[in-house]
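Quick one: structure tokens for this chain, please?
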Amino acid sequence: MNIKTTLVTILLSAFVFGCAGTPVHFSDAPLDKLDLSRGRKVTAKAAGIHLFSLIPIGINERHLDAYEKLQIEAGNDYLTNIYIQDSWSWVVIGHKYSTTLTADAYPEKSNQLSEVMSGKALTDKLNKLKILRESNTISEIEYEQAKQRVLNNIE
């Protein structure tokens, strides 16, 4: 094999293997278990450079890196509505690829509401519901629905 063939083989291999990244699979959020009244936006970024427009450094894994950072930013909350934005720009030594992930993070619904509903005294249930609402543990809608259930169960 001559030098020209070897060089072409190396360059072709670098091109083929340098452009392959790990697929990112977003986990599904159990929408029925989420407290949609207490959501927040989370954002994460990751970047890589294509050195001399030939050697990829950190490019292939930037989506996975950004998703892992997004999960850390969300903590124990569930991620929904994930938006991916890719961009690139020229730099002196090649070009830079950037990925920004933005998502909504929602906590799981509190079990405190079901504990309140299993109480015995009517006034006790209503007082506990009021405390949960005032502390923003449950939303106004959840409060009204739970209050109606308590009042409807009076026989």
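The mean pLDDT is 81.
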